[in-house]
Amino acid sequence: MTPLIRTSLHLMTMVSALALCMPAATAQDQFRRPSQQTILVTPQGDILDYVPEAGEVTIRQDGRGRRVLIDHYGNVVATEMRADRYFARMQQEQQNGSYDSYGEDGGFDARDPGAVTGSVEPGAVTRQPLDDQAMPPALDENGFPAAPDGPDTLAALPAPSMHEDPITKEPVFKLNGKSKPEILALQVFLDRQGVSPGVIDGHMGSNVTKSILAYEQMTGEKLDPNDTDYILEQLRLSGGLAITHYEITPADAAGPYVAEIPDDYSQKALLPSLAYTSTAEMLAERFHMDENFLRELNPGVDFTIPGTIIKVVNPGQPKKGEVARIIADKGRKQVLAYDNGGNLVAAYPASIGSSDTPSPSGIVTVERVALNPGYTYNPKINFQQGGNDKILNIPPGPNGPVGTVWMALSKPTYGIHGTPEPSKIGRTQSHGCIRLTNWDATELAKMTKPGVTVEFMD
């Protein structure tokens, strides 16, 4: 690489970093204490918004005696912390006007597991809520091991490195002190290559690790996530920097939008559509972003005003081609799409089944593909939701139970579909179906025709 190119790349890195170095988002004025004595906190400082199944994580202890949850790729999923200490520290940081390793809005209570797809009748889609899976018992009768005072550390936890994971037999990647802009650049690079990292948020996680492995399978080349110079050069060649500017149009601001998405299905059925609830939510999905990250990039911005210039991720163009075979890898929580020649066309993080409602095994086929599908609630074949005892026809929309896509499979009641909660893809479980982000599900649907095989791998 010539000195000129290298200098330009370092300048590009500085520009990206400056674009992201903005004031922290305002934290909530009041912090709610959860009823349990302990909580699970992500490396970004947020309260983990789902409970992993026992088989999904390995539990170890850090230097303070706290339980640490690690996924099969070597990534720290969450650390168990005393709820009183967590919220007390968040209150102190709010009063001091600083937000450190516990995140910028880490005081919110995000334990809602959401709802996921249930079963399907011919021509109709139904939905059931997700039952949380219990974690293994705590180390003592209080659910929390005694921890000495002192700085937070992972001294007793082996740091993930470029080695083979003993469970998955796949490489584990460690980032060497990479900044948020550099991780963002890696996510956008992977997105443009057709190996989706899920929502783009500037954080390293298992979805990014899975997309790196898919990139290597697709290209036959090893990718070093620490080689920022290479990643920035590839971004330059494939459409420019990871962040670009966008002007909000009158159509963007006009919607239509709905004020909120009610929980009760009878109220859902009365809405004209299950549309986005805000311009920010719509733009976040359009640019493959986490909505909170969009707001972080644009502090104080009113997204309802046409003509406003905002910063957004510059994602890749939708993949094109013809998919002949789909693999739903349950262990990796990833969907792999291949063409007639056996070449990997695209890869997507996914939520696939759970222990109580597992996905099928073996090979099925795609029977039909529906974009922007409606939703039918039938209490006789599913569950009792509130006081509803009649069949309800729930309108379509991106915030519908199956998002923007329904790909019916030959196994009755199963399908591939989108989701109203893209940030949970690859982390929560579904009720047997295959859940993708709306943009990934739409991309896959447009490359897939009835008759394509779908193989569930255990």
TrEMBL record:
<feature type="active site" description="Proton donor/acceptor">
    <location>
        <position position="417"/>
    </location>
</feature>
<dbReference type="InterPro" id="IPR050979">
    <property type="entry name" value="LD-transpeptidase"/>
</dbReference>
<comment type="pathway">
    <text>Cell wall biogenesis; peptidoglycan biosynthesis.</text>
</comment>
<dbReference type="GO" id="GO:0071555">
    <property type="term" value="P:cell wall organization"/>
</dbReference>
<keyword id="KW-0573">Peptidoglycan synthesis</keyword>
<dbReference type="InterPro" id="IPR038063">
    <property type="entry name" value="Transpep_catalytic_dom"/>
</dbReference>
<comment type="similarity">
    <text>Belongs to the YkuD family.</text>
</comment>
<feature type="domain" description="L,D-TPase catalytic">
    <location>
        <begin position="324"/>
        <end position="457"/>
    </location>
</feature>
<dbReference type="GO" id="GO:0018104">
    <property type="term" value="P:peptidoglycan-protein cross-linking"/>
</dbReference>
<keyword id="KW-0133">Cell shape</keyword>
<feature type="region of interest" description="Disordered">
    <location>
        <begin position="94"/>
        <end position="136"/>
    </location>
</feature>
<feature type="active site" description="Nucleophile">
    <location>
        <position position="433"/>
    </location>
</feature>
<keyword id="KW-0732">Signal</keyword>
<dbReference type="InterPro" id="IPR005490">
    <property type="entry name" value="LD_TPept_cat_dom"/>
</dbReference>
<feature type="signal peptide">
    <location>
        <begin position="1"/>
        <end position="27"/>
    </location>
</feature>
<dbReference type="GO" id="GO:0071972">
    <property type="term" value="F:peptidoglycan L,D-transpeptidase activity"/>
</dbReference>
<protein>
    <submittedName>
        <fullName>L,D-transpeptidase</fullName>
    </submittedName>
</protein>
<keyword id="KW-0961">Cell wall biogenesis/degradation</keyword>
<dbReference type="GO" id="GO:0005576">
    <property type="term" value="C:extracellular region"/>
</dbReference>
<keyword id="KW-0808">Transferase</keyword>
<dbReference type="Pfam" id="PF03734">
    <property type="entry name" value="YkuD"/>
</dbReference>
<dbReference type="GO" id="GO:0008360">
    <property type="term" value="P:regulation of cell shape"/>
</dbReference>
<dbReference type="GO" id="GO:0016740">
    <property type="term" value="F:transferase activity"/>
</dbReference>
